[in-house]
User: What shape does this take?
Amino acid sequence: MKITAFIPYNGENHTLRTVESLLTSEYVSKIVLLSGRKNLKPVDGCKIIEIRSLFSSETIKLISEAAEGDYIIFVKQDNHLDFGQFSIERFANIARNTGAGLVYSDYFEIKNNVRTQHPVIDYQIGSLRDDFNFGYAYFFDTALVKKAVAETAVNYSYAGLYNLRLKISQYAPIVRIPEYLYSTIETDIRKSGEKQFDYVDPKNRELQLEMEEAVSDHLKKIGAFLEPDFLSINTDEASFEFEASVIIPVRNRVKTIADAIESVLRQKTDFKFNLIVVDNYSDDGTGDKIKEFVQKDSKVIHLVPGRTDLAIGGCWNEGVHHPACGKFAVQLDSDDMYSDENTLQRIIDTFRKEKCAMVIGSYKITNFNLEVIPPGLIDHKEWTPDNGRNNALRINGLGAPRAFYTPILRKYKIPNVSYGEDYALGLMISRDYQIGRIYESIYLCRRWEGNSDAELDILKLNAHNLYKDRIRSFEVMARQRKNKYA
Assistant: This one.
């Protein structure tokens, strides 16, 4: 068995240590250094190939042409990788025995001289995020890489690697080894909450368009792409006492619930609305705060569920199925606020104009004191009316605030979870109906120590990502069936 290894090279000494680690395996017969810089010091026993972009189609093609033997090891970042005892043999044996097109593994990461375990998650049909974490070492079947290159007509500047693994998944399984097969020094030491919005950075717009093109092509190949053909709805047919209801699920947010409620009661509208606060058995004084507003304003309904097993999604179901729920149900998290007194009117105007089943706005990230903090505005402009519902399978969220045509929401039901329930709804609804968008900020999303996603450990982060991948898997399969039986 022969393996060709491809490593990014910028002239750093740690590359020599990675090369030495690779050469401990008799399977590694060739090492190629990929460099965007000229006149770098040669490394004994290695060939240097000049590239312009590590993740471009051009580079993937060069790798395909230079690869010799059965498998390719591709290192995605210029880090020092120290492969563990017989780990390369382990990659090779798993790949051979399973027929996998791509194998990856858990790894150790070293931060501030401390070695910690970094498990990754299993790949599934819905693992379509372009930032899915395979770790730093990709173990490819050489023949399938060559096949993917031959079948790629688009010359991607940024989405070459993403396109490659999507195509590989069409040919063969992608397999995770739940073992720590190498160590690396982690250079991005930001908190999870600081990383999660990287993909909506405006400077990455060109990259986003390429990723969208790649995932759209993949969805077509696997029969899950949806053409821009939507069911129509007439929002004037339903009869409700209230035109809109704001729904706030809450548990133990005594510091922020008053701000949230007040931001609703300040709304100026040409229609009748109310506020349903679903209090999930708070025991920190939140319930008393809500009662104060109930006594002052008839718009406020304090709803305590009859069940004690409800997460955020379940609390939403309680509010949506309440007899006083309006024609449109509008989201507000208990530690967030509407940006001004016109938010509710803008949302309902969008429903009226676009006759859509769901409306999603844009928001600004703030600290607890409502001061805007990076990355600032989150507008999800990667959404387009024609292709948004396909591209939605690639990204990890759809935006906020979210609002729904209540008859549709009552039909779909909301998953009884406290993470990803809104994303699941957006995917389900977009399968059949158009989603309206507001790209200006109408919402303030607070980031503080009480947030559920401000800073997550790797196990919690993996659990979140695994669940969203599962949601995407459900949706991919549902869309395949929709197309098959259309």
Remarks:
- Residues 458-484 form the longest helix (27 residues).
- The chain is about 35% helix and 25% strand.
